[in-house]
From TrEMBL:
<protein>
    <submittedName>
        <fullName>DNA-binding response regulator</fullName>
    </submittedName>
</protein>
<feature type="modified residue" description="4-aspartylphosphate">
    <location>
        <position position="56"/>
    </location>
</feature>
<dbReference type="InterPro" id="IPR018060">
    <property type="entry name" value="HTH_AraC"/>
</dbReference>
<dbReference type="GO" id="GO:0003700">
    <property type="term" value="F:DNA-binding transcription factor activity"/>
</dbReference>
<dbReference type="Pfam" id="PF12833">
    <property type="entry name" value="HTH_18"/>
</dbReference>
<keyword id="KW-0804">Transcription</keyword>
<dbReference type="InterPro" id="IPR020449">
    <property type="entry name" value="Tscrpt_reg_AraC-type_HTH"/>
</dbReference>
<dbReference type="InterPro" id="IPR011006">
    <property type="entry name" value="CheY-like_superfamily"/>
</dbReference>
<dbReference type="GO" id="GO:0000160">
    <property type="term" value="P:phosphorelay signal transduction system"/>
</dbReference>
<feature type="region of interest" description="Disordered">
    <location>
        <begin position="282"/>
        <end position="311"/>
    </location>
</feature>
<feature type="domain" description="HTH araC/xylS-type">
    <location>
        <begin position="316"/>
        <end position="414"/>
    </location>
</feature>
<keyword id="KW-0238">DNA-binding</keyword>
<dbReference type="Pfam" id="PF00072">
    <property type="entry name" value="Response_reg"/>
</dbReference>
<dbReference type="InterPro" id="IPR018062">
    <property type="entry name" value="HTH_AraC-typ_CS"/>
</dbReference>
<dbReference type="GO" id="GO:0043565">
    <property type="term" value="F:sequence-specific DNA binding"/>
</dbReference>
<dbReference type="InterPro" id="IPR009057">
    <property type="entry name" value="Homeodomain-like_sf"/>
</dbReference>
<dbReference type="InterPro" id="IPR001789">
    <property type="entry name" value="Sig_transdc_resp-reg_receiver"/>
</dbReference>
Length: 415
């Protein structure tokens, strides 16, 4: 993968020399444009995305610092390396304040330039790996909601739109595919399963990158896939058949498209899929298919006690699990595993949906039950401490007073 590099300097010779004498390809970069001023650079960045800007500091209209400030204020995913003939402390401070990745002096030491860009390549590779991992987590979660849960169509659509902003699953066509894969010599091996699922997952990506395709996670056929399309495409069926035929031509597998249905939107598709799959369609989905998407805001705060919202399926499941197991040794990682999510992504999703960190939410649930026990039972304080999941009595006292303003004993006396 080559990262896109923009070179900016008000001296034409510098721009040309930096473009020509550095082996950017070997470093993992591609010079996509050279510009002569920060003003041109800002205008360019408003229209085009690059990965790195290598810029002079002092230029006629807008400086390299101005470019770095623009990138920081817009929160663009762009690294900045500044070039300067000035060894000025104030400029270095400005560069640091605006998140400049590195600072090279003129005349440029090529060994130093190569060192800087090799380090940048490693940083960009690491960031790309994290983004890819996050996207895979999101795809797995969306697939889980789509094929293995009773989540409402509107909630699933929200996650699909996060994966591909070009699609609107509640208002645009979706297709449900069913594919069988067999082998004359017997059952499918793990390699057969992996190969056929990889082909299915990539079927639409090559010709139709604006589409979104999700495949279910089952290990054995038949496999189901859902494709969301921003516009109606007559080529879809033929493209799927051609892809499967290629698999048949070069392997001993026999893949066949046995089911192909087009639906006006995701809600109607879910009703059909859940009617044939062991998971039955929920009443929320059936209602959406009949009357269209409705606005539903599920409140999952422990104080409200409401779990009836039509969306936010995974967090509702997590909240229910916490409510049932709060007295045990719970952790974010353990609860994330219960809803089949990466812990980092689960933590972000939990905060987004509840407006609370997982740890704060767990404390609130435990103290709610502790107060119920203090009001309604004769249990000793140390017994209540254990019953709500705390093993350290001193810590329980401290936590209770911090949140309630009184000790557990004082709370009981006032109740």
């Amino acid at each position: 993968m080559k990262y896109r590099l923009l070179i900016v300097d008000d001296e034409r010779e510098v721009r040309e020399v930096l473009s020509e004498i550095v082996d950017w390809s070997e470093l993992g970069f591609e010079v996509v444009q050279t510009l002569k001023d920060g003003r041109d650079t800002i205008a360019y960045l408003e229209q085009q995305l690059v990965d790195v800007v290598l810029s002079d500091i002092k230029m006629t209209f807008e400086s390299g610092i101005d470019v770095a400030r623009f990138i920081k204020e817009r929160q663009l995913p762009v690294k900045v390396v500044l070039l300067s003939g000035y060894q000025e402390f104030q400029l270095a401070q400005e560069a640091i304040r605006n998140d400049v990745s590195d600072y090279l002096l003129k005349p440029t030491d090529l060994d130093e330039l190569y060192r800087v860009f090799r380090n940048l390549k490693r940083e960009l590779d690491a960031g790309a790996a994290v983004k890819q991992s996050e996207r895979q987590d999101r795809e797995r979660f969306a697939s889980y909601l789509l094929f293995q849960s009773d989540a409402a169509a509107e909630e699933i659509a929200r996650h699909l739109e996060q994966l591909n902003a070009a699609v609107d699953p509640m208002r645009e066509p979706c297709a449900l595919l069913e594919v069988t894969v067999t082998k004359d010599s017997g059952g499918l091996s793990r390699a057969d399963v992996a190969s056929s699922k990889k082909l299915l997952a990539n079927m639409a990506a090559g010709q139709f990158p604006s589409w979104l395709m999700l495949l279910d996670e089952r290990e054995q056929p038949p496999y189901y896939a859902v494709i969301c399309m921003p516009t109606e495409q007559q080529q879809l069926y033929d493209q799927m058949q051609n892809s499967l035929q290629r698999l048949n031509n070069i392997t001993a597998l026999k893949a066949q498209l046995v089911g192909f249905q087009r639906f006006d939107n995701l809600a109607t598709l879910l009703v059909e899929y859940r009617s044939r799959d062991p998971l039955s369609a929920s009443s929320d989905v059936k209602q959406e298919a009949a009357v269209g998407p409705q606005r539903r805001d599920g409140d999952v705060s422990p104080s409200s006690g409401s779990q009836s919202g039509g969306g936010k399926w995974a967090i509702r499941q997590a909240v229910a699990y916490i409510e049932e197991h709060y007295h045990k040794n719970l952790s974010l990682e353990l609860v994330a595993g219960q809803v089949h999510l990466n812990p980092v992504y689960f933590g972000q999703l939990f905060k987004n949906e509840t407006n609370q960190n997982f740890s704060d939410y767990l404390v609130e649930v435990r103290l709610k039950h502790a107060k119920e026990l203090l009001r309604s039972t004769p249990f000793k304080i140390y017994e209540i401490c254990d019953k709500v999941g705390y093993k350290d009595l001193k810590y329980f006292y401290k936590l209770f007073k911090k949140h309630e303003g009184v000790t557990p004993s004082e709370y009981r006396d006032r109740s």
